[in-house]
Design a protein that fits this description.
heterodimer, A: mainly alpha, 75% helix, 0% strand, globular, B: mainly alpha, 2 domains, 5 helices, elongated
Chain lengths: 239, 117
């Protein structure tokens, strides 16, 4: 069905046009993710509560770091492809910077309740473990630019957000707008990949896995949005 | 009906529940109640400000950012689920790694791809 729809919509488009259109969709998705992280940071700072699951922070920041460092620790390093330039480099830098802020915020909030030594130990172990898992998967499955890995993380993050919302009866510390931005961001990235899958080496099973995970992310994100809509007081939905 | 002894002499500063409430209220930038009748002053404040009360109760009940056993189990369970998903993907794609290699070869189009094997 997806290939047929693609042929009907883009059958006569040149490869360069397809890649440019896909690039715009992918960039829009990343901008929406940046917006989501910014909103989560701001909401967490106001409520003094983590607005994102801790595991999601670890998985996300280690993946971004791995890509930013050109697959450091991955065998072979060529799997990260040529270095990103232009707007992609800026987008990745923004996302990584926001990830670092989220990590620092999580550390400060957690340390206040659990002490410096315990918090540091858990953070170091979790970050090391997460990075090792990313590097291992990307190397073993030849996951070019960690694409499948990123969607596995995305799906797990979406599930963790739902769990977080279920644990907070009034949606304390959670941002409704960030939930929408994150959902639309993931959707835009999935559409970008569908428009021009070739530069990401999406073939065979890899294609099915990525689209399957993208569908799971969409369903979980919609569930999360619905939960927040029902749980947050109306005046907090736009906060 | 109530089992609360309203005549009991309690010193707020030594009461853990009061201290927890006070800390949660303070953390939101609102000065906690002070004075001789701190319990009732704090309770009045929470009753008159429902949003603050909901925020504080949520923080105390669900949102503590600490790393107790429950949080640790939750954190490492999430990482375990991630590792399991990875393992599943690895097992499923083991047979199709040739296809992936071919796609990467097409993408790079030069010899360093051959080292990916």
């Amino acid at each position: 069905m997806l290939p047929n729809a693609h042929a009907a919509l883009f059958g006569s488009a040149s490869s360069a046009d397809l890649i440019a259109t896909a690039g715009r969709a992918l960039l829009l998705g990343h901008v929406l993710w940046i917006l989501a992280y910014g909103l989560i940071l701001s909401r967490s700072a106001r409520s003094r509560l983590l607005g994102i699951p801790l595991a999601a922070i670890f998985l996300n920041i280690t993946w971004e770091t791995l890509l930013y460092t050109g697959c450091a620790g991955v065998d072979p390093r060529e799997l990260c492809g040529p270095g990103l330039g232009g707007e992609w480099s800026i987008a990745l830098t923004f996302i990584l910077a926001l990830d670092i802020l989220l990590l620092v915020q999580a550390f400060v909030l957690t340390r206040a309740a659990s002490g410096t030594a315990r918090t540091t130990l858990v953070f170091v172990v979790a970050l090391t473990l997460s990075y090792g898992l990313h590097a291992s998967l990307i190397g073993r499955t030849l996951d070019y630019r960690g694409l499948v890995d990123s969607w596995i993380i995305n799906a797990i993050m979406s599930g963790l957000f739902v769990r977080l919302a279920l644990s907070r009866p009034h949606g304390e510390g959670l941002s409704f707008l960030a939930a929408i931005a994150r959902c639309l961001g993931s959707l835009a990235v999935a559409i970008g990949l569908w428009i021009a899958p070739e530069p990401y080496a999406m073939t065979g099973l890899r294609t099915g896995v990525v689209y399957g995970l993208a569908a799971a992310v969409l369903l979980l994100d919609l569930w999360y949005i619905a939960l927040l809509w029902r749980r947050l007081p109306p005046e907090d939905r736009l906060a | 009906m109530s089992s609360v002894d309203t005549t009991a002499k309690v010193s707020p500063q030594n009461d853990p529940v009061f201290r927890e409430l006070e800390a949660a209220v303070n953390a939101r930038g609102v000065p906690a109640a002070a004075g001789p009748d701190q319990f009732s002053a704090l309770a009045s404040r929470l009753i008159s400000e429902p949003r603050l009360a909901a925020d504080v109760s949520g923080a105390i009940a669900n949102g503590k950012a600490g790393l107790g056993w429950n949080e640790l189990v939750g954190l490492f369970a999430a990482l375990g689920i991630y590792a399991s998903a990875q393992a599943l993907y690895y097992l499923v794609t083991a047979e199709s790694s040739g296809n992936t290699l071919a796609a990467l070869t097409k993408l790079f189009g030069h010899t360093n791809v051959e080292t990916l094997n």
